[in-house]
From TrEMBL:
GO terms for biological process: regulation of DNA-templated transcription. SUPFAM superfamilies: CheY-like. Residues 123-221 form the OmpR/PhoB-type domain. It comes from Candidatus Kapaibacterium thiocyanatum. Pfam families: Response_reg, Trans_reg_C. One of its GO terms (cellular component) is cytosol. Keywords: DNA-binding, Phosphoprotein, Transcription, Transcription regulation, Two-component regulatory system. The lineage of its organism: Bacteria, Pseudomonadati, Candidatus Kapaibacteriota, Candidatus Kapaibacteriia, Candidatus Kapaibacteriales. GO terms for molecular function: phosphorelay response regulator activity; transcription cis-regulatory region binding. It comes from the Bacteria. This is DNA-binding response regulator. The keyword Transmembrane does not apply. Residues 123-221 bind DNA. InterPro entries: CheY-like_superfamily (IPR011006), OmpR/PhoB-type_DNA-bd (IPR001867), Sig_transdc_resp-reg_receiver (IPR001789), WalR-like (IPR039420), WH-like_DNA-bd_sf (IPR036388). Residues 2-115 form the Response regulatory domain.
Length: 224
């Protein structure tokens, strides 16, 4: 799943980004209404989490602008809990709302309902060769043997296995898994790829995670 979070409060944005990333979601972040509209219209998302009290462009206007072009589910996140505020947001095209303060579990549950309602739910099982990732149960196995992964390792593998055969740049993986811009002086992507290889490839003759020199990484099964 890919989520766009439009939220100007740094602590809330970081909390949401971390929570979704640990669930294996790809996360993009915009911290004002103007950049939120630009990101929503430029990218393809399964759901958008939209705060109302945003700088530059108010959240209600952001919602209206997005809905005029996109059908992406919009989940409002706001401290404005009056019925009038909720009704106005829903009338402008929001699909649901959560009032601050909130439980992250509730927000995720509502986001998942919206993706299912809009027919955007992703496959539950991903396979590359004899490697299987069960997204519903968050289980990974190879050749029938279960493999224990940390939340970050799982999120990285999920990003790769969603699109077997696609080369991911380090910048793409940094943004989608960690929610950060890739710093060429940081080797965090390479470190976690090594962790994955030690668990997924090292015990087996056939290797699935490959380096594309000068670019990034790809997961594929080279054996017919």
């Amino acid at each position: 799943m890919r989520v766009l979070i439009i939220e100007d409060e740094p602590k809330v944005a970081a909390f949401l980004r971390k929570g979704f990333a640990e669930l294996g979601w790809s996360v993009d972040l915009a911290n004002d209404g103007k950049s939120g509209i630009a990101s929503a219209l430029a990218g393809t998302y399964d759901v958008i989490v939209l705060d109302l009290l945003l700088p530059l462009v108010h959240g209600l206007d952001v919602c209206k602008a997005i809905r005029s072009v996109r059908t992406t589910p919009i989940l409002m996140l706001t401290a404005l809990g009056t019925t009038e505020d909720k009704v106005k947001g829903l009338e402008l095209g929001a699909d649901d709302y959560v009032v601050k303060p909130f439980q992250f579990e509730e927000l995720v549950a509502r986001a998942r309902v919206l993706t299912r309602r809009h027919g955007r739910s992703e496959p539950e099982l991903f396979r590359v060769g004899d490697l299987v990732l069960d997204a519903e149960r968050r289980l990974v196995s190879r050749a029938g043997t279960e493999i224990a992964l940390t939340p970050r390792e799982y999120a990285l593998l999920l990003e790769l296995i969603r699109q077997p055969g696609k080369t991911f740049t380090r910048a793409e993986l940094a943004q989608r898994v960690w929610g950060i811009s890739h710093d060429t002086g940081t080797n965090i992507i390479d470190v976690y790829i090594k962790y994955l290889r030690n668990k997924i490839d090292r015990p087996y003759e056939r290797k699935l995670i490959h380096t594309v020199h000068g670019t990034g990484y790809i997961i594929r099964d080279d054996v017919p």
